[in-house]
Amino acid sequence: MKGSCERRSMRAAPPPIKMRTDAEQLGLPFLPTPDLSEVFRRVFSRLRIKSPVVSIGARFHPFAGLRSTIRVRDGAVKARVSDVLTEASPLVLEALAEILLARVFHRRPSREARECYLAYTFRPAIRSRIDAARRERGSKRLLPARGHHHDLEEIFHQLNDRFFDGEIATSRIGWSHHHSRRILGHYDSGHAAIIINRKLDSPSVPRYLVEYVVYHEMLHIRFPVERRGQRRVVHSREFREAEKKFPQYELACRQLKQLCG
Ligand SMILES: [Zn+2]
Known about the structure:
This protein is of the alpha/beta class. Helix content is 41%, strand content 14%. Helix 2 (36-46) crosses helix 3 (90-104), helix 3 (90-104) packs across helix 4 and helix 6 (152-164) packs across helix 7.
């Protein structure tokens, strides 16, 4: 969760893999990797972008999850696309190219492109590749749950009994290595891990505040990310309603805002 009770969804955490292995296991003929730069050049000219561009290059990159980046420097466009998508159809790759190019050239991607890309990334097979990439490539080093002032594991079990009938399962919970100014907590579905910002492990932070942040991350397990039309809904209405059941909800929101301000 971010540093306040803001309604905005978290960044598409956003998030690649050994597709080759999958294809081999399924005994499918091995498909040639598409020429990504060509895809981007094609979409660039279709969008009729007027900005002067000297070159366009794009390649697959083994990100720890479904993540793609683009930048323009001195007229050169460089994109890196999650290698979870190496087997995606040309249509899906074109849709992503449109989304990325639109982002960097301040356009609005078409509805078709957004729908096409989102539909592909929500396929169960793709979701499990994304999770596998996160698990294998992401570094999820946590500090132990028992901090100097608050014990996350104890808080987790207590909340689990009190609000979830003990039904929330997670493999790990721990403190982050780094202090982040804005991210107070995070649920990583690839690692089934809850990570809480170490800055909350302080004598000046009352226990109920830590409880609230852990509770919020537990709700991410109870209410996984949904797809609604073209949007990924991270904090659904059900999520927000459940969040308000936390006894000191209002107070916790105010205090967390101050803490991150
Ligand atoms: Zn959240």
